[in-house]
Structures are given as structure tokens and as C-alpha cells.
Amino acid sequence: ALARRTYGFVGADIAALTREAALEAVRRIMPKIDLQEVSIPPEVLDALSVESSDFDDALKRVQPSAMREVMVQMPNIGWDDIGGLDEARDRLREGVELPLKHPGSFKRLGIRPAKGFLLYGPPGTGKTLLAKAAARESQANFIATKSSDLLSKWYGESEQQIARLFARARQVAPTVIFIDELDSLVPARGGGLGEPQVTERVVNTILAEMDGLEELQNVVVIGATNRPNLIDPALLRPGRFDELIYVGPPDTAGRRRILAIHTEGMPLAKDVDLQLMARNTERFTGADLEDLVRRAGLTALRRGLDEAQVTMSDFQTALEETRASVTEEMLDDYAKIRDTLKSDA
Ligand code: ADP
Fold first, then answer.
1. If you count DSSP H runs as helices and E runs as strands, how many of each does the chain have, helices first?
2. Ligand 1 atom at minimal distance to the Cα of residue 85
3. Taking the CB of the first residue and of the last residue of the chain, which one, N or C, has fewer CB atoms within 10 A?
4. Ligand 1 centroid vs 326 CA: distance in angstroms?
5. How large is the ipTM?
6. Residue 267, ligand 1, Cβ within 6 A
7. Which amino acid residue places its CA nearest to atom 18 of ligand 1?
């Protein structure tokens, strides 16, 4: 089983893996030990047995040399760090968190969890945050990439990169793979980044990898895009990115929550009324609100470096300097796209 899980490992990587697994076993018995300083006492060595879980941990830690570009992360974003987006969060809880945390229950009931989710909506609304939180709250690893990184002019390079991405994801499963800018996987003449032949090969390789993911293999793929109408329809067929989740700008309550999240730790004067700010920031995205808070802080600093508090007037000044990155027109467009995607589904 370990041989299968070490696809892409060269000899030196395997040597590093076994060494790391042995060190994991030592740390299990003596968590505080500084292995640089101390040699391991013989009685510990005698009691030592390397468990399968030590190899699981070591697999996460040892980065195979041929897969350096595939970074395994453990994000520190949770559901509580995301304001608004209740519906998107609930769907990811049910679609990603439950199956990854309780694969046995799904198997028993014969339910096939979805393998692919597509988050779509304007930039800065929290799509990346949602994918990270889905991974973290599922106690899964997170591997992020964007399609422009997968489009290589060198023949075969893109396919190899995608194969490494999925192989690494299976090695460290449970894993959430996040692919941003999914819309750039359309041929260049269609507004995408790649040469037509390259793009087609990349799409086909991703599809083949997703088709090859057996259900309950504990790998889930989350794609994100600002332009869902450009996505190759082959990517949206059943068994692929077939769970479509719209991620739009937050409502007033969501904005209130996002302002609270981003002002945490900021000394606010008593007159600061975040509810009022939330009401006055129609169509602001999470990223816009984060920027607003930062500007309010800078305005306070400009008054004097000793300034101890950020006041409501700093927020008003910041509000005058910024505006919503999402327009009414964009919202109308997304509403139309939503209808089309729904009727196609
Ligand atoms: P997207 O992937 O949709 O373009 P991101 O998730 O990268 O947007 O958001 C960019 C930044 O904006 C985040 O790192 C976060 O600081 C802030 N942000 C966006 N949406 C939210 C939200 N719903 N709650 C809290 N912060 C948010």
C-alpha cells in the first residue's frame, strides 16, 4: 500500500519518508524531544514501533522531489472566519465536510457524494476562503492551483503536472483540491489563456483524473470562476463539476459580520457603528470591506502615529475613498447566468 502511495517518490524521497516516520514514532512517545540535541535513549528505542499512522504523518511532511510544485497546505480558515454566504457554506458542509469526515456512513447508505464543486461569482466574494474552510473543517489537506499554472506550452508538461496534482492529493487524502480561474481553460480564441490544443489536453486530463477518482476516495475538487459562462460544458457534466454554487456579494447581515471579522483586534472608538456601515455598503464584496477597514485604520494613523483608536469618522472618510467593486449590471448578468446554468442542469 505504501508503494502505491509513494507515486513520484525517488529513492532519496523514500529514505526521507522512512526516516521521518521513525521520527514520528519517537515524537509520539516523547513529544517534547529535540532530536537535534538529544540522542534517543535505548529504552525508548526498544519500545519503539513505527505505526501506519506515523507513515500517514510522514507522507504529509516529506515533499517528493518531483512534486515540489504541488504544495500541501493545512489552511487556518474556519467557517467562523467567513461572513455571510450561509447557503454556500451549508452546501459545502453537506457536500464536502460530511462525506470526508464520515465516509463510512455514506458507504453504508449507498450515497455517492459529489466529487466536484464549482463556486462562481464576482471576484473577492470569498470563494477561496470557502474552499479553505471546507478543507480545514473536514480535517482535510488543501492543495491549491490555478488553471493558468497548468497551461504549459511544453508538450506533455501540463498533463504531467495534473497527474502529479491528483496523485499527491490521493497520497495525503482526505484532500480538497482547489482549482482557481477554471474559466481560463477555454481555448485562446474563446478568451482563455492557452493554445487551443494545450487547453483541450488540460481539460481532458482533468476530466480523466476526476472520472478516475472513485467515490469515497476522499478527494474532492473545488473549482472557482468569475466567468462561469465561459466554462467548457464538458467540465460541468455529471460526476465532474456538477455542484454549482453561486457566491455573491453579502447582504447587510453578512456585511455586518464581515466588518466584525476584519475589525477584530482593532481598537474601535465607542461611536463606531458597524451596523450603519453595513447598511451603507450595498454591493461591497468581502474583499471591498476588508479594504475599507484597512483604509479606516490608515486614516486614524494619518492623524498621528500615537492615535489609539479608529473612529466612525475614519470609517466615513474610508467609505468616501472606496466603492463597491460589483455593479448592478454585473449582478444582473450573474442572475441570467444562474438561470441558464440551472436550466441546463
Ligand atoms: P475570491 O476567491 O472569491 O476572489 P477570496 O476568498 O480570495 O475571494 O477573498 C479575498 C479576501 O477578501 C479574503 O482573504 C478575505 O480577507 C476577504 N473576504 C472575502 N469574502 C469574505 C467573507 N465572506 N468573509 C470574510 N472575509 C472575506
1. 16, 6
2. 23
3. N
4. 14
5. 0.99
6. no
7. 286
